[in-house]
Every structure is written in structure tokens, then in C-alpha cells.
Amino acid sequence: MHLSVNRLALLFTLVLLATVILQGCSTSPRRQTVAAQPDYCIGRLALTAREPVQFLGGAYQFYWGDIDTWREDEASYRQRVLAAQAPVDGARVRELVKPVEKLPQDQGVLIVAREEDQAPFDPNVVQVTGLIHRDGTTVRFRKRAVSRLQAVTELRAREILAASTTSTTPFPPARQAQDGFCVMHGMVKLAPLPGWHETTRTEGKFMLQGTAYRFSLRTRYLRSLSFNELEAHNQRLVLPELAGGTTESMLEEQALHANASLLTLQTPSGSKRIVEWRLPASSASHATPAIFLYLWPQSDAPTAQEDAAFMDWLNSHEQQSMPLLTIASARPSSTQARPAAVAEESKVVYRMQLSYPGKQDAGNRHYLILRDNQQVDEGRSDAQGFTRAHNADYDETWGTTVLNK
What we know:
The chain has about 400 residues and is mainly beta. It is about 15% helix and about 40% strand. It has 5 helices and 29 strands. It has a 15-stranded antiparallel beta sheet that branches. A 5-stranded antiparallel beta sheet has the order 2-1-29-26-27, with no helix packed on it. It is globular, with a radius of gyration of 22 Å. The termini are close together.
């Protein structure tokens, strides 16, 4: 029996095959429609929109954790805090590892728990959740970690909450790109360090001649330029469902120039053309992440006239020029707080629970864990079928082999 990890990039996580459980760091876009400012900061980039845009939501990962924000009142925030520590919250169940901690100087709360879709709970991992409410905005940082790294993960959560600021606008203005990592309605004023993972996905829409179009802007810090090709492949894997296709939908590519392609997607309603514009990472710096911009008609079945107008608009841009947005990277300012350098805790968790049909016992099964086809662990599953948990990097391939012993 052999189960392997597939190299997918959905917001920012690995995707496992069969019964592999990888608890990464991704969130679904929040359906929030707000007017854009003329220029704004996303991640560590300064952007200006060439057309009026509306933001629909996004997903932001920082230090391999999720950062989410909501505009809400104090009462809604208190309900959110209660739900985050409840034994049952929607489709999730949890048990607290320690009492909920109120952070000093009204810096929010910290919740450490084990959380699953259903019991039993994996004793090898914990989930650390930090919440804070300022000026009508709630900020949440959430990260799953190997249990032995609980203390340092709590420390990081406190640092991130303390360094967070909020904004009533969709994003901070572009001039603040030097000040920190920008997310919807706020930012984290921490300087990036080697190993400090960052990635963004921002969804929105814009209008051309009365017709609605969608855009998706993604950025990801790459610790090696050798991963540019892999990242381009991974971004396309998650595109079809977002643009109205299915997981089985195929993309046909027509190169426009070195930085852009025209992709044709087959949807249940017909075909749809998607423009892909990409800027590979030029260095292993947080100021120069890999950047991807996707544009497509919002309609499931755009008319020939709408398709032609879309292509005319695209062709009106100078060759090699990104449509819709202009983007500039910003070097961190010297005023940003610099936390202690990260080590192995700045990873995503690879873990597995063995399961078998019927009443076959998954406990005490002999297993091998492989990283990039090299053995890194050998042991036996616990009574509930859980193997030991490990820290994984985005670009690694992990697999578990169960031996017949």
C-alpha cells in the first residue's frame, strides 16, 4: 500500500492522495464586494488599477498560517471567539489543549486546540488560533503545527497579532507596501526573513463596456528560482474550477508572448477564454515573488461580441505589459519589526491517519514515510491509526508506505 503527495498549490497548500491528510494553510475567498482605491498594497506589492475594480475576497498565508479579516462589530467578534473554542463548530469538532488565553493590553485571544472533521483527534498536531478586534475589523491568524512546536507557534501567533494593523478600506494604500505584508482591511508589520513563507490570492471583478469580467491575482514567495516552472503548473491546476469549469476540465494554451498566454477552458456551458499573465520570481526575495494574473468573462457563456470586445481590450495594451494592473515590488523599510529567524516551525504539517474498510484495525501498522523518495521515518501507527507528523516544505513530495507486517 503506497500513498503519495501531489504537488498542488491551492492557496497555498499541498494536496494529498487517498487517505493522506495534509492540514495546510488555505482559505476560500470571502464573498465581499467593496470598491477599490486607485492604488493599494497587496502582500508586499504596490498596485494601481487601470480600470475600476471591485474586490470579492481573498486568501492570505503568512509564516505558513492563514490570515483572515472581517469587517464586523464587537458583538460579532465575541461570537466568533466563542465559536473558535466550541467543541462543535459547524462541520468541525475540537478539544482545547489549554484554557483560552487573553493576551495583555487588549491584544486579543489565543486558542490552542486539536481540531478535526470528526473524532478521534490526532495527538501529534495542534491548531493555534489568534484573534484580535480593532476599529471594526477582526484579524485571525491560524496555523496547524506539530505538537512539539506548540510553544514556538504560540509565540509566533502573539507576534503576528501584536504587529497587525487594520484599515476600513479594502487594502492599505500602495505607499504602505514598504511597511509590511498587506491583506484585506489590514497588514502585518513584520519584516520578512529567510524561510518566512508568504502567499496571496485576491479575487475581484471589473467592467468593460457594460460586461462583467473576473480577475484573480496570486503571488507566492519562492525559496528557489528553480521552482518557477512548478509554480506555474500548480497555479493552472486550480484555475478551471474558479473560472467555471470542473476538476476534469482541460486548458488549451496559445502563447501571446513571453509573459502571457491565452487559455481556452471547456465549461459545462461551452468554451471560455482566459488570459494568463505571469512574472516569474527573479530572486529568492520576498520583494520579488512569483506573480500570476488571470482574467476571464464572468458569464458562463460569453457571446461572440463580448469575446471580441475582451480581446480588443487586451490587444490595446502594449506587448509585454500587464493588463488591468501595474505592479511594483517594495523593499522592506528599516522601521519594520524583525522577529527572531524562523526555523523548522515555518512549515506545513504532513500527517496521515491509516484507515481500512470494514472493521480492519488500523492500529499498530508498520509504515515508512518518504520525502522526495528518501526514507525519513519508520514506525507503527497508534491505536487510532495515526502516524507521526512531520514538517513539510511546499516544493517537496511526501508519501507513506504501509508494510504488510
